[in-house]
Recover the amino acids of this structure.
């Protein structure tokens, strides 16, 4: 009876000193609040018997810097029933020693609001890790609870997990995009407890290893790593996307991806677990992906082969008005919408003509990276003035050629608008405006005041008349002589 009471008291003490804040199956746990300057303070969100689908931002703490997150999934089988726990830990690094306050905060986890009362955090001198020994040479509780050997034995639990680089295409044209996704897969039947290790620095090195030198990249920028269920070969897994990007080959050179290593923290379990003893031991295991190659093909022959963009596109055009007079300005937007390398799209060049004056367009673009695809729109807004009356199809002036990999052919986007122009021709006005002559060049400097003609001017006039008469008389004599 006394032994039972002591066990119950021990269990109650564990529950009292726990810093968990539970709300149904979700919780927020605050880590140890007395740490060394070289240790992390942690806040962990945890979900039991479900996956972590959504969570709000972790709080900011004055005097601390966020230093990445780590996640873990634990699966247990008890009496034939399976239970699982998924957690995500935010690490905080102190910038100096002292006492700091974590104010009360709320977090939303899988749609449930969970509150925490916060805590005081004491940051002291750097801590040197060493094994602690009982002053009695042996823990007296060992004998009380059945004894435990000083040399604990731990067993390596095989992880049912792997890392893989998935490619949505194994063969592409020059300029055609493909998506590469590096992810860690944990089987539903996995029994090994693991969590990510120093993921921020590992991803930096992975990107250096993976990124091909001859490709344009559109990074999906994964900020939070959360698991999503997938099925592979009839087995259920939880997939943790680590890095995802779209590549667009710039040259006809095959792209080779080497084997990529991901280092994980994996815990060994005690061979003879006890209630108060250390039942797991931290260890490391590196998982490696398989090598992959993407074959890059040259585009079929075409006069614009080296200039076209590859993708699936449509034209979404806008016209301010389709009826106007010569000299009246209008706006025409040539909007290219679709999937592909949006940043590489060049504006359509209006064909040379005497009908319209087209000015350089205003260019805007929007790129969306989601669901493993890069989509968006690039808009070219032209300002124009018609010079000649008549009915005109804008398709005679605008077209944009691209290569459609879905249809495996070159395709052209052309306008469907027709413009009706009335009024007088501005062609002569245009010529006159380009060459106004010497007379008009002197307008800005000419004096409008009337002036009297002096004697010298009369003399100049008489001399000019004499020269004209002399030339005329000479021409008359030559004509008469030849006759």
């Amino acid at each position: 009876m006394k032994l039972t009471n002591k066990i119950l008291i021990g269990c109650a003490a564990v529950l009292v000193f726990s810093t968990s804040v539970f709300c149904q199956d979700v919780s927020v746990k605050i880590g140890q609040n007395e740490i060394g300057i070289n240790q992390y303070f942690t806040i962990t969100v945890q979900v039991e018997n479900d996956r972590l689908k959504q969570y709000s931002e972790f709080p900011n703490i004055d005097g601390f810097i966020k230093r990445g997150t780590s996640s873990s999934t634990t699966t247990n089988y008890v009496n034939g029933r399976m239970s699982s726990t998924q957690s995500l830990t935010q690490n905080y690094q102190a910038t100096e020693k002292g006492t700091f306050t974590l104010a009360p905060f709320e977090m939303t986890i899988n749609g449930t609001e969970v509150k925490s009362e916060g805590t005081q955090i004491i940051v002291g001198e750097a801590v040197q890790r060493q094994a602690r020994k009982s002053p009695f040479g042996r823990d007296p509780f060992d004998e009380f609870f059945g004894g435990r050997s000083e040399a604990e034995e731990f067993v390596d639990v095989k992880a049912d997990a792997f890392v893989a680089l998935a490619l949505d295409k194994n063969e592409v044209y020059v300029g055609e995009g493909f998506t590469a996704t590096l992810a860690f897969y944990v089987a539903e039947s996995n029994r090994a407890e693991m969590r990510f290790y120093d993921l921020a620095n590992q991803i930096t090195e992975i990107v250096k290893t993976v990124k091909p030198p001859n490709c344009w990249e559109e990074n999906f920028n994964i900020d939070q790593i959360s698991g999503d269920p997938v099925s592979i070969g009839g087995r259920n897994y939880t997939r943790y996307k680590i890095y995802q990007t779209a590549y667009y080959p710039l040259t006809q050179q095959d792209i080779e991806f080497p084997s990529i290593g991901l280092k994980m923290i994996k815990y060994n379990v005690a061979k003879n677990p006890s209630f108060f003893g250390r039942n797991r031991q931290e260890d490391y295991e590196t998982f490696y992906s398989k090598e992959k190659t993407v074959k890059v093909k040259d585009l079929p022959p075409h006069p614009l082969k080296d200039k076209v963009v590859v993708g699936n596109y449509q034209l979404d055009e806008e016209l301010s008005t389709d009826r106007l007079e010569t000299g009246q300005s209008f706006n025409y937007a040539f909007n290219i919408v679709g999937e592909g390398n949006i940043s590489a799209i060049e504006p359509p060049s209006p064909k040379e003509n005497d009908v319209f004056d087209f000015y350089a367009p205003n260019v805007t673009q929007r790129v969306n990276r989601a669901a493993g695809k890069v989509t968006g729109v690039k808009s070219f807004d032209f300002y124009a003035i018609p010079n000649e009356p008549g009915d005109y199809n804008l398709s005679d002036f605008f077209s944009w050629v691209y290569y459609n990999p879905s249809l495996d052919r070159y395709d052209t986007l052309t306008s469907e608008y027709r413009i009706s122009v009335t009024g007088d021709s501005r062609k002569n006005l245009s010529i006159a405006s380009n060459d106004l002559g010497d007379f008009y060049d002197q307008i800005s400097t000419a004096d409008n005041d009337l002036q009297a003609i002096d004697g010298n001017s009369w003399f100049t006039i008489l001399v000019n008349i004499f020269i004209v008469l002399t030339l005329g008389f000479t021409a008359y004599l030559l004509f008469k002589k030849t006759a």
Remarks:
- Residues 155-297 form one domain.
- The helical segments are 2-17, 140-144, 199-210, 427-434, 437-441, 455-482.
- Confidence is low (pLDDT under 50) at residues 1-24, 130-138, 140-149.
